[in-house]
Write a structure and sequence with these properties.
The chain is α+β, with helices and mostly antiparallel strands. It is built from 21 helices and 27 strands. It has 7 domains: 133 residues, 2-Layer Sandwich (Beta-Lactamase); 39 residues; 105 residues, 2-Layer Sandwich (Beta-Lactamase); 127 residues, Beta-Lactamase (2-Layer Sandwich); 101 residues, Beta-Lactamase, CATH 3.30.450.20; 94 residues; 150 residues, Histidine kinase-like ATPase, C-terminal domain (Heat Shock Protein 90, 2-Layer Sandwich). The strands form 6 sheets. The protein has a 6-stranded antiparallel β-sheet, with helices on both faces. Strands 6-5-9-8-7 form a 5-stranded antiparallel β-sheet, with helices on both faces.
Length: 847
């Protein structure tokens, strides 16, 4: 019903407006008619005055009066004329009449003249009361008629609204509510055929709105997809720091997930690290922008630690639906461009460095402006300090060139006739440096119309090359002399003829040089049986199948005798033609000597075989001797030792001190003899036994040997420290353990009197071997005996002072030699000794 009330109020307002407009039009009509009537009355009064004036102009007085009277009677009969007065020239009244009248009059008073002489005066008054009364009646009639029409319209409108518009208006209200709710189809059709056009209009309006909304949604989706699929990073963010949208390119380059950079704080924390505070302050200022702004280039950190360079620009957007200010930031990843720029700068620097190293300068001569540009090296060559723009003065250049006319003419020929410009000349640098020889090469550059515009060239400091070339010519002369005097025959030939031979080559074959060059083919100097080999070698090199060859063959001299030749030849090319160059030696005497050596070697092999058989017999005898020593010699010793112990046990009371000493000496001698036999057997076994080459943990083996001697170490009050890093080697476990035992026993044995023995076992790894050392604080030895101590039965101390057999170190050397290692010692008297063991590394080859 609210809509009905609105419609009613609108209708009443329109009716009021129509009424006011009608009254205004009636008033305007009244004013227009009134003005028209007044104009007609005024024109009528003027006409009457003119008639009266015409009567007064009649010259005869009687006729004048009569005419005035007649006209006056005629005028006064008009109901509109209420007053008429006519005066003659002398002021006497000819005619005068006045009727009752109202206030509305048109009054005229006119003086009549004839030939510029006053002849009379007329006063006329016309009433407007009748016309005024008619106009007022008309106005009242219009007002009443308009009022009746308005009342009729209002009543009719109210009736129509109540009877015919209530349901349509209700449906229209429902349609409006559904449109407001986003439903753009008509669910409540309008009744009556008269409203169907309105219904179609509303339906069209709904479809249009639906299409516009769909188009807007499509536009928003296209905008979103355009941002998401853009080939450059884009982010939309609000002033509270929220990232409203981050496109895929942004995420792909940085490697961050969307939830890892939900806000500006997250982004600056990850991308800028320690510089996040300054970046956040700069970003906060972006929300006050009213126009696009380029922010500049910044280094960002990606998730994988890589750094990229982004060039940012930001533009303001409309506020978000919640009122927040938003901006869009677009980044161009310029990392590759920056790298390319750096590479270009590096290339330029390298080019300048290369020019400086190669003493090559570049220059350009602009034919339009007449300016010359030169590189830094060009200025250096000319001895000129380069200006900031590298502009080279032609006056300065010409001042450096003694042959300026030749150089100038060559440049003119290049520009005018496009002749090749390739000169070599001397210049005198302006910095008073020594004269320089340069080569200058240039080309003429043309524009798109084929007109010459620029000359581009390079200059090369070839002073050293010219000097080297001169030296080379001298060297070539010397080399030629050397070749001619060489003891080897030197040659160059093609497939079928000799191109060069030296004097020695001709001497070897008994020809002179001219005969060889003019008459002989390369195969003519080869013995017939070796020619197929020689031809094959030549073809291989000529055709490129073989670059070089080295072989021996028999040569054929001019007199028919045969000689042995050692031939060296290589393929060369001269002006594109394949040739063979080389040298040969007459090895006939050497061949004869080799034959003699082969004969002697054959005899030697026979002797070696015989000697080897003898050695095998000796080894068998040695094995027999070792077995004999092991069994036959030990048996008497056991008897002597047993009988001496019986004497000591059974006859001790009968023996005096000297007798007991003799028995003790016998037992000591037996013990020394037993030890000597055992050491000899150990040395023999070490020489004959098969040794393994196993990978070993050297430190573990050392610790095992030390643990075996723990009782002896403790009994002697000694200390043994193992200070070796982890080491690996390849050796025989038992053989290396035997060596370590012998070295440790020596260290414990040869201690200084009164000083506790201290032994250190260390080591280090090398590229192909590992080294162990055993260092003690004992009596030491003179370094001049460092080799002698490893010989069998060699001792530096008396047996009475330091017991032993003198075989232990010999066993150590023999074992290390058989394990592809070595042992050596360093010492000074009274300063201890250090024994070194070099052991092949774990990955060393077994030999």
């Amino acid at each position: 019903m609210q809509n009905y009330s609105i419609i009613w109020r609108v209708t009443m307002s329109l009716t009021t407006i129509v009424s006011l407009v009608s009254l205004l039009m009636a008033t305007l009509f009244y004013l227009h008619i009134n003005r028209h009537i007044n104009k007609e009355l005024e024109e009528k009064a003027d006409t009457m005055i003119e008639l009266m004036g015409g009567a007064l102009e009649i010259p005869l007085w009687d006729l004048n009066q009569l005419a005035v009277k007649r006209i006056s009677d005629t005028l006064i009969q008009d109901n509109l004329v209420v007053q008429l007065k006519v005066k003659a020239r002398l002021g006497n009244i000819i005619y005068s009449i006045e009727k009752d009248h109202g206030m509305a009059l048109i009054y005229r008073k006119t003086t009549i003249q004839h030939h510029q002489e006053m002849i009379g005066e007329v006063e006329l008054a016309i009433t407007k009361d009748f016309a005024q009364k008619n106009l007022e009646d008309l106005l009242w009639l219009l007002t009443i008629t308009t009022s009746l029409i308005l009342v009729t319209i209002i009543a009719t409108t109210r009736m129509i609204i109540r009877r015919y518009l209530r349901k349509p208006l209700q449906n229209i209200n429902d349609i409006a509510n559904s449109y407001a709710a986003g439903i753009y189809t008509i669910t409540s059709p309008l009744p009556y055929l008269e409203f169907q056009p309105l219904e179609r209009i509303l339906a069209d309006m709904g479809r249009t709105i639906q299409q516009q909304i769909s188009a807007l949604q499509d536009s928003e989706e296209r905008f979103r997809r355009a941002i998401q699929d853009a080939p450059f990073p884009i982010v939309i963010h609000a002033e509270d720091g929220e990232f409203l949208m981050v496109n895929q390119r942004w995420l792909d380059i940085t490697g961050y997930a969307r939830d890892e950079i939900a806000t500006i704080a997250d982004w600056t924390e990850r991308a800028y690290g320690e510089g996040r505070r300054q970046m956040r302050e700069g970003i906060d200022r972006l929300y006050a922008l009213d126009r696009p702004q380029a922010e500049g280039e910044f280094v960002i950190a990606c998730k994988d630690g890589r750094q990229r360079i982004w060039d940012f620009s930001t533009s303001p957007l409309s506020r978000a639906s919640d009122g927040r200010r938003t901006v869009i930031s677009i980044a161009a990843d310029v990392t590759e461009r920056k790298q390319a720029e750096n590479a270009a700068r590096l290339t330029q620097a390298r080019l300048q460095k290369a020019q400086a190293i190669g003493h090559v300068g570049s220059w350009e001569y602009d034919l339009i402006t007449g300016q010359i540009w030169g590189s830094d090296e060009s200025f250096r060559i000319y001895g000129i300090t380069p200006p900031s723009d590298n502009a080279l003065s032609i006056t300065q250049v010409e001042a450096c060139i003694p042959e300026r006319e030749r150089v100038h003419q060559a440049l003119v020929d290049l520009i005018s006739e496009n002749r090749p410009y390739n000169l070599q000349f001397t210049i005198n640098p302006l910095n008073e440096a020594p004269p320089i020889i340069i080569t200058s090469v240039a080309e003429l550059l043309h524009d798109q119309h084929g007109q010459p515009v620029k000359v581009a060239g390079v200059i090369h400091d070839v002073t050293e090359q010219v000097k080297a070339l001169d030296a080379l010519r001298g060297s070539e002369a010397r080399f030629r002399g050397l070749v001619e005097q060489s003891i080897a025959g030197i040659y160059i030939f093609s497939r079928d003829r000799f191109l060069y031979v030296n004097r020695r080559f001709a001497e070897i074959f008994g020809y002179n040089e001219a005969e060889i060059l003019e008459r002989l083919a390369p195969t003519d100097v080869v013995a017939p049986e070796d020619r197929p080999l020689a031809i094959r070698r030549v073809e291989d090199r000529i055709l490129g199948r073989l670059q070089g060859a080295h072989y021996t063959a028999q040569g054929l001299r001019k007199d028919g005798t045969r000689i042995w030749l050692e031939i060296h030849g290589n393929r060369i090319e001269v002006d594109g033609e394949p040739l063979v160059a080389g040298m040969l030696l007459d090895i006939t005497e050497r061949k004869q000597a080799e034959d003699e050596i082969r004969r002697l070697n054959a005899e030697l092999e026979i002797r070696v075989s015989e000697r080897t058989a003898q050695l095998e017999v000796a080894n068998k005898e040695l094995e027999t001797f070792a077995y004999s020593v092991s069994h036959d010699l030990k048996a008497p010793l056991r008897g002597i030792d047993g009988y001496s112990r019986l004497l000591q046990e059974d006859y001790a009371s009968r023996l005096d001190a000297e007798g007991r000493l003799f028995i003790q000496n016998i037992q000591q001698g037996v013990g020394q003899m037993r030890d000597l036999i055992d050491d000899l057997l150990a040395y023999s076994r070490m020489e004959r036994r098969t040794l393994r080459h196993d990978p070993l943990d050297l430190v573990q083996l050392v610790e095992k040997v030390v643990a075996e001697r723990a009782g002896d170490i403790a009994a002697q009050g000694a200390t043994v420290r193992v200070a070796a890093p982890p080491l690996a080697g390849r050796a025989d476990p038992e053989g290396l353990a035997q060596v370590l035992r012998n070295l440790l026993d020596n260290a414990l044995k040869f201690g200084c009197p009164g000083i506790p023995v201290a032994v250190e076992i260390g080591g280090q790894a090398g590229p192909v071997s590992a080294t162990l050392w055993v260092r003690d604080n004992g009596i030491g030895f003179d370094s001049k005996f460092h080799d002698r101590i490893f010989d069998i039965f060699q001792r530096l101390q008396r047996t009475e002072d330091y017991p032993g057999t003198g075989i232990g170190l010999a066993i150590a050397r023999k074992a290390m030699q058989r394990m592809n290692g070595r042992v050596w010692a360093e010492s000074n008297p009274g300063q201890g000794a250090t024994f070194y063991l070099e052991i092949p590394a774990d990955d060393a080859p077994i030999g």
